[in-house]
Amino acid sequence: MNAEIIAVGTELLLGQIVNSNASYLSKELALLGIDVFNHTVVGDNDKRMREAVKIAEERADILIFSGGLGPTQDDMTKQVLADHLGLPLAVDKATEQKVVQYHADMEREMSENNRLQAVVIEGATVLKNETGLAAGMYVEHEGKKYILLPGPPNELQPMFDNEVRPILAKLTEDSDQLVSRVLRLFGIGESQLAAQLETIIDTQTNPTIATYAEENEVSIRITAKGQDQDQCNQLIDQMEKQVRDIVGDYIYGVGSETSLAQVVRDLLVNKDYRLTAAESLTGGLFQSSLVNIPGLSLNFIGGLVSYSEGIKESVLGVSEETIEQYGVVSSECAEEMADKVKEMFDADIGISFTGYAGPKEVDGDKAGIVWIGLAVTGRETQTYYYHFGKDRNGNRKRSVLTGFDLVRRLLLELPSQKK
């Protein structure tokens, strides 16, 4: 069984929004063992939508539409499809009541076009919208399956998960299952990773592995096909062990949504360490990324953004002699910054960032030069030198991720302090 995803919306063609729904749906369909061979994007145009539907019907068993179910004139997906299939439209009373009640609860006057969100193709299985108003639909007609989903991702994803997945699971219950696992890596490039895994890649059958380059990171997707999820997971476990034996130091987590900040947060909490930071070129980005992860108030007690030379001296306490002799972008300054901030906040670990973010050289030093200091109670303070590129914000992001990876590796070495 294979599917085609048809994203509807002129705003997609204009680049005003990114078609994230297609990525999400492809991943979810793959997990159900449904192949996706084509993605189509079509604007809010009756003729071109009909052409897209006809083409998709020739090459796919399942047509999944995203967008075009709202109350405005350019929301025409269900109208075009109903006419194409020769099926009438009808009002779903439960959805209509929900639309009316929503406006009453919000004390808003409801324009009549809002009732269009309750209009469905007659005979369709209505898909409940838990986070919005427009009803989704599942239609079977002359051997084809048609799934109509709303465009906003916060509506589409819950509807697919709660309403569509069970339907598709029944359709594919006699087929082999497809299960994937994503390994997240930092500190290694995709070409280097592929070279190290060349033997595995060249001999892969089932499971298969693929490498993907992302912003400042890479990932490995291991995909197995089997009779059930347990069989697939066993195959993936065996392949993951082979991969970890080769590049295990670079793997920081499992799962497409996993981040370095989350991993560091979990290690800090589970091992009971307190972290603080003194940032110069990163301007608070490290600390901001850390506090985006909930549940860290006892392990991250505060930090300092010491962007200027004067603040490094007067507030953080870096010595005037260090700055005069070595400069603010130096191993010596990074070391003092890490030591001083750890002492100031009475933390177990202090990390510092200083450097030239760019894009221009400063006093003859190239853009992208970064020093990171790492002070740990009971250990000698270490500093690390990096030279990234010329992109200012790219250098800042890369510095932050590198800092998280240094803390991650350190915490893996340190014993737990939990009593």
Automatic annotation (TrEMBL):
It comes from the Bacteria. Pfam families: CinA, CinA_KH, MoCF_biosynth. The lineage of its organism: Bacteria, Bacillati, Bacillota, Bacilli, Lactobacillales. It comes from Desemzia incerta. Gene3D superfamilies: 3.30.70.2860, CinA-like (3.90.950.20), MoaB/Mog-like domain (3.40.980.10). Belongs to the CinA family. The gene is cinA. PANTHER family: NICOTINAMIDE-NUCLEOTIDE AMIDOHYDROLASE PNCC, NMN AMIDOHYDROLASE-LIKE PROTEIN YFAY. Residues 4-170 form the MoaB/Mog domain. This is Putative competence-damage inducible protein. InterPro entries: CinA, CinA-like_C, CinA_C, CinA_KH, Competence-induced_CinA, MoaB/Mog-like_dom_sf, MoaB/Mog_dom.
